[in-house]
Amino acid sequence: MELTILILLLPFLSFLLVGIGGKWMSHRTAGIIGTLVLGAVAVLSYVTAFQYFSAPRLEDGTFATLIPYNFTWLPFTETLHFDLGILLDPISVMMLIVISTVSLMVHIYSFGYMKGETGFQRYYAFLSLFTMSMLGLVVATNIFQMYLFWELVGVSSYLLIGFYYTKPAAIAASKKAFIVTRFADLGFLIGILIYGYYGGTFGFTPDTVSIISGGASMLPLALGLMFVGGAGKSAMFPLHIWLPDAMEGPTPVSALIHAATMVVAGVYLVARMFPLFIAYAPDTLHMVAWVGAFTAFYAASVACVQSDIKRVLAFSTISQIGFMMVALGVCTSMDPHHGGLGYMASMFHLFTHAMFKALLFLGAGSIIHAVHSNEMSAMGGLRKYMPITHWTFLIACLAIAGIPPFSGFFSKDEILAACFQYHPVMGWVMTVIAAMTAFYMFRLYYGIFWGKENKEAHAAHTPHESPLAMTFPLMFLAVVTCGAGFIPFGHFISSNGESYSIHLDPSVAITSVVIAIISIAIATWMYKNAKQPVADTLARHFKKLHKAAYNRFYIDDIYQFVTHKIIFRCISTPIAWWDRHVVDGFFDFLAWATNTTSDEIRGLQSGQVQQYAYVFLCGALALILLLAL
């Protein structure tokens, strides 16, 4: 595994080369360098995965945890130190596959989508930095190294969301994403410091924790604060507000953020710290489950009425990340047969979701490239013009809806089975959300490819199929989406030594499929035809609810009110007045008093020797008289 260091070094070198020397490169050269480097990273990741999973197991049947590289950066005590290195275990190796695959497809796709864009070289440099940051995060050997790359992921997302820096909307979106996640990351950092102090280590597993007196009672707080950081990165309610606005970046960036990098970082954090959650903070895991469930329901409700296709997919991502968080939260042990099913299901859904969500976003980019609009009103009937995009998009919709044999069915079924194992109420709540997912995705599908064709918009920009550079990633990801469900995923990440592979709970699977089919049938009935009387009638009868959902239930307006009307006006403005008039006034007074006094007495330092002699003589005489008296 010595070559694994190249998985981090190659994209970093690509970032430096294209970022510094890009101004002297052509667009084609910069794109080829970035893509070839990611191709090499993908090959190294696949080779690493093959070698790791084909290696002999330990005596208890588990996969070994390998650390090919590790060195101490900042030592504090014998057990507490900041290390940098590479850790390979089942979930980190799985993430190497996910990140490198999706990133490579995005690099190839961007050749066609970003062709002719100003800043093309800068775009590819930022892509390399983004990929390197996420790769460094998933192979971190300790929580502090994870935090370093965690912040690099935040910086990279800021740069890419604000790529069109001449657009005010892109500037606002990048700042919003950066600020919201920084607030969340403050909680993450405080949690790391508490964990390091009371745990005596920055390692991931309970076996390495040297808990000091009273530390066990503080670890739930530390882990809860770490989850706050994860909730910010993964856009969990109420820290979700940055993700829909992140659509202002180029669409391939949206695919990378939503599928393989930023938003899955929070899920990976909880999964990485999972042994600690189970051992010391099981109640915090239950909180994770209910936060994830509410987020999934809220986001699905909003997605049902959005008209911007990228916003539909953005809220879909928030909902699906909620599914993954719920799956982790409903676990009660590490044993997959006794309460640990959700851990397997969450990682499996992270893997399958990355592929079909990247396919959905790249498909959306292909559609936007053809019609020059994000709004469904400018679409309709596109299946006649874009057959490859149509069929690959349909495959992704079937996968996320949970229709067999597509990959989303297998991973979603595992999550629902884990939820029913945890509590029937949670199981039915998530089943309803899964039904909503099938409904809004096929509402989106029919609005784009069927429905009423906007002939006026199509006359201005005749729709056409995208070039091969864009359709090849669509076809590749579609094939992966069709076959990923048959991977014996749980067998790879099982941590208790037992052979465990994905299995189906017949009652859960049949129920979920039937409900998904009913939801798709309702969406077909309402949105397939050019006229949509049922949808229009419902929108009129539930006008306030429809408007509230379209406006994201006014959560952004609440944030605006709290920040501008309360924090800025009632707190920041008085503080600013005090600072400007009292603090600044006091120091201005000191400066004025000093200047005035110096003006009055500066004559004493005139530089005239005669004056100095006269004053000296007068002073001497005055002193003699004083002594004489």
From TrEMBL:
- Localization in the cell: Endomembrane system; Membrane
Species name: Bacteroides faecichinchillae
Do the record's keywords include Membrane? yes
State the InterPro entries in the record: NADHpl_OxRdtase_5_subgr (IPR018393), ND/Mrp_TM (IPR001750), NU5C-like (IPR003945), Proton_antipo_N (IPR001516)
UniProt-recorded name of the protein: NADH dehydrogenase subunit L
The record ties this protein, via Gene3D superfamilies, to:
1.20.5.2700
Q: Name one GO biological process term.
A: ATP synthesis coupled electron transport
Query: Mind listing the GO molecular function terms for this protein?
Result: NADH dehydrogenase (ubiquinone) activity; NADH dehydrogenase activity
- Please report the stretch or stretches of sequence annotated as the NADH-Ubiquinone oxidoreductase (complex I) chain 5 N-terminal domain: 73-124
GO cellular component terms?
Answer: endomembrane system; membrane
